[in-house]
Design a protein that fits this description.
It is a single chain. The chain contains 27 helices and 20 strands. By secondary structure, the chain is of the alpha/beta class. The strands form five sheets. Strands 12-15-16-17-18-19-20 form a seven-stranded parallel sheet. The chain has a five-stranded parallel sheet with strand order 6-5-4-7-8, sandwiched between helices. It has a four-stranded parallel sheet with strand order 2-1-10-11, with helices on both faces. It has three domains: 143 residues, Rossmann fold, CATH 3.40.50.10090; 135 residues, Rossmann fold (3-Layer(aba) Sandwich); 339 residues, Alpha-Beta Barrel (TIM Barrel), CATH 3.20.20. Helix 8 crosses helix 10 and helix 21 runs parallel beside helix 23.
Length: 648
């Protein structure tokens, strides 16, 4: 399986770190084309810097924002033309200093200073303002901003809107390089179709490339050529510049570092490039598109496209031989991703689930970012509470809340007779996703298991001991069975509707069933699970998953399913032997391993693969979902490791 650039040509417009960038590309198997696109030019007469120094010495400055490392050093040098450097350092150390990322931090460290606050990644002006709102309010404060290249009016206006008296301090400007030949040659190669990837590491690079192209009269040809080139951007500000140039970024790492940009693009860029070129060939405007705009060609084209029959995930689910172990991850679309958080900033979780275009977008986004072998539709297991007339809301800091919990037989009787077509927005999201998803990448639909859903409905939300649930289950079996029967009918219909809409496989998350002992599971859950799984369309492989109690694994197998999902508490080799060779297994890396180093992640992934021993029917996954604070780069590292280590 390809996990590098495999000899593709990669253009970089990096200047100061051009050699480092070329080395990264080469180490990832690419052929670098370096075309430095900018140079820093100190201002000849920096009266602004000297005026700032005078105000700083007079105590008229409360806060200094340092945007770049080079700019911090140039500001110090400009002040040194009139004042002693020691005096400037002492004055700077007496006010609040805010560093936009690690580079100005390093420049301050050279002066023996430590910033009052460092802006978290990705260090955009929006992140800077948000961090100041929380830690360093600027109302009625005098704020100096060390600028670079060109003035950031959005940042300056944002500070003024917060009540600050803002002093912009420009220290250098961006200019085109003196030798434009490398840029022109790179532009010619892109237009000629000889380049597969282009990486941008600053907004100015984008603007300068099109400035030169416009000067040479080929900017339209260049923009058209980019429609078939995979574009990597180092971060949000750079991505905004690409959009201003009427193009679309294909890959942006969560961490704004060159290493993450190049490695992430190398790991999954060939898939992104293939998708973009296929889209361009069928008339999709790939310079202005969303993921859901993709529509893969029909099977009668030549050469014939990949189909779901080629899916390694589907083959593994059916215990067929595969060239490598497929991997997907529970919660692979979620809060650990910066792009997901940006979407969620504008909508609630329920709004996201109920907006098919957004649900499909975040589903596809995870596949593009991670390079996994299956997508899982973005939804929530509790969406079915609304058709039952019980009410559902998600409370910040608490999680889901059922407005009208089910606590007795009368509550069961008053539930609405739910219809699965009331969840049509989920099916619409599946249809959008399946159309845009690469044909050999499986799409998984899902639902909560009957015990888990019943527990939420009875408890009214999350629970640590499921006391109310077990009380009903033990003391009022008539009410319990009535509730479970209602849920089984609704869940089976819901899963079948997802399959009809385009889901290639489905998963039942009965996560809370692990709270039961084997005898209680056998008596109160197993009969309902058997009925549920028997009523789901068997053409789609079904994954049966729970957590917390390996002792019920044999009972889960009796319940049914083509794949049994294992959490991290089970030994994969022993569990598979217990289950027998006639089912596939999924799992089961402890999710917390993703907080470790890449070397440790690979070691643990290798151990899981060793337990599977290459037998047909293993699907790699975590033992539970990705946690919100995990590094996306570490998740990519796991996917890469599983693909590489399991290649047959």
């Amino acid at each position: 399986m390809t996990v590098d650039f495999t000899g593709f040509h990669v253009v970089s417009f990096e200047s100061r770190r051009a050699s480092e960038m070329a080395g990264l590309i080469e180490r990832c198997g690419g052929k670098p084309i370096s075309a430095p696109s900018m140079r820093e030019s100190p201002l000849e007469r920096n009266s602004d810097a000297l005026s700032f120094a005078d105000r700083l010495f007079d105590g008229q400055i409360d806060t200094v924002i340092l945007l770049t490392g080079v700019g911090t050093r140039m500001l110090t040098q400009a002040v040194a033309t009139r004042h002693e450097t020691g005096r400037f350092i002492e004055a700077l150390g007496a006010v609040v200093t805010i560093a936009r990322g690690p580079k100005p931090v390093a420049a301050l460290r050279e002066m023996g200073l430590k910033p009052t606050m460092t802006v978290p990644e990705p260090n955009t002006w929006r992140d800077l303002l948000a961090a100041m709102d929380e830690h360093c309010p600027v109302d009625n404060k005098s704020v100096a901003v060390q600028e670079y290249g060109q003035s950031n009016t959005q940042l300056l206006n944002g500070l003024r809107q917060r009540g600050a008296d803002v002093l912009p301090v420009p220290v250098y400007k961006w200019q085109l390089p003196e030798d434009l030949a490398p840029m022109r040659q790179a532009i010619e190669q892109i237009i000629a179709g000889n380049v597969e990837f282009v990486v941008f590491t600053s907004a100015t690079q984008v603007r300068h490339v099109f400035q030169v192209a416009q000067r040479d009269g080929c900017d339209t040809k260049l923009r058209d050529a980019f429609a078939a080139v995979c574009i990597g951007s180092i971060g949000p500000i750079c991505t905004e510049a690409v959009r201003e140039a009427d193009m679309t970024v294909d890959f942006e790492p969560d961490s704004p570092h060159m290493t993450q940009l190049v490695r992430g693009l190398a790991c999954n860029g060939h898939n992104l490039l293939d998708k973009k070129r296929v889209a361009a060939s069928i008339g999709v405007n790939t310079n202005d598109w969303r993921r859901i705009d993709m529509s893969w060609p029909a099977a009668n084209v030549h050469p014939p496209p990949r189909t779901i029959a080629d899916s390694v995930f589907m083959k593994a689910a059916r215990r067929e031989p595969v060239p490598y172990t497929p991997i997907w991850l529970m919660r692979q679309a979620g809060r650990y991703q910066r792009a997901y958080r940006a979407i969620r900033a504008g909508v609630s979780l329920l709004e996201l689930c109920k907006t098919p275009e957004l649900a499909a977008e975040v589903t596809l986004m995870a596949v593009d970012q991670l390079g996994v072998d299956a997508a899982i539709i973005f939804a929530d297991i509790l969406l079915i509470a609304e058709p039952l007339g019980l009410g559902l809301e998600f409370v910040k800091g608490e999680g889901p809340r059922i407005d009208r919990p089910v606590r007795c037989r009368e509550d069961v009787n008053r539930m609405r007779r739910a219809k699965v077509d009331e969840l049509g927005y989920v099916y619409d999201a599946i249809r959008l996703t399946r159309r845009a998803l690469r044909p050999d990448i499986a799409l998984i639909g899902f639902a909560g298991g009957p015990f888990t859903i019943a527990s939420y409905l009875i408890e009214g939300g999350k629970s640590s001991n499921y006391a109310r649930t077990k009380a009903m289950m033990f003391s009022d079996q008539r009410a319990w069975n009535a509730l479970m029967k209602t849920l089984v009918q609704l869940i089976s219909g819901y899963l079948n509707a997802q399959i009809e809409a385009g889901a290639d496989a489905v998963q039942i998350f009965d996560s809370w069933a692990g709270s039961l002992g084997p005898d209680d599971y056998r008596r109160h859950v197993l009969p309902h699970m058997k009925t549920l799984i028997s009523e789901v369309n068997s053409e789609a492989p079904l994954i049966h998953f729970t957590t917390g109690n390996p002792a019920i694994l044999p009972l889960m197998k009796q319940g049914g399913g083509d794949v049994i999902g294992l959490d991290w508490r089970a030994d994969l080799a022993a569990a598979w032997q217990l289950l027998g060779p006639d089912v596939a297994v999924m799992g089961n890396l402890d999710p917390t391993v993703l907080f470790c180093s890449p070397a440790e992640i690979r070691k643990h992934a290798s151990a899981i693969l060793d337990k599977a021993a290459g037998r047909p029917g293993h699907i790699f996954n975590l033992g539970h979902g990705i946690m919100p604070t995990m590094s996306p780069e570490h998740v990519i590292e796991l996917v890469d490791a599983v693909h590489e280590l399991s290649t047959r």
